[in-house]
Amino acid sequence: MTSFLPDSIEKVIDEFSRLPGIGPKSAQRLAMHLLHSPEMRVDALASAVAGMKKGLRFCEKCFNISNGELCNFCADPLRQQELICVVEDILDVIALERTGQFKGLYHVLHGVLSPVDGIGPEQIKAGDLKSRIEEMLSGGVTAASMEIIVATNPSLEGETTALYLTKLLKPLGVRVTRIGRGLPAGGDLDYADEVTLTRALQGRLEYI
Ligand SMILES: [Zn+2]
Known about the structure:
Blueprint: H1 7-16, H2 24-35, H3 39-51, E1 57-58, E2 65-66, E3 80-87, H4 90-99, E4 104-108, H5 126-138, E5 147-150, H6 156-169, E6 175-178, H7 194-202, E7 205-206
Parallel strand pairs: 3-4, 3-5, 5-6
Antiparallel strand pairs: 1-2, 6-7
The structure holds zinc ion.
Zinc ion binds next to loops.
């Protein structure tokens, strides 16, 4: 296709159109917006994007995104150490924090089990969760004082993962609960509003 725009602009349009939810038309509009923006704003955007991943890593304990060995939650002594909420990804942590109701720690799986896509337990941070709990138990924490809330999405993959984790963790003697109903089936946790999410968190049920 013949391009009517200089290469430098085409490059920007091409990069924008690779982003989720951005079609070719939106990519063009964003590029035009930048073209008409003051150079200072464009530089600020470029350096924010370029610097975003520098110095970032995963928390050694919960695999949340972090600047140091431990994320802000794991490093906070005021959070309930024996209450661990297991989520699919980092956006779910943000969604749960928005409710202001959860005072425990997290464990980010970075995915869910999906046999169709070839994603098994080794591809998510499930084994790491088991080792984390085992380490806590050998460090003097009693199993009876622990609760693991499985807050994977109410989708087929989310439910499959929740069942898998229950089977994995129950033998350790800890309480495993599932985030309550009320979340739209098949929906994403991070799309739920604060009230729905708070209700789901309060209405959690133990797996038997
Ligand atoms: Zn952490």
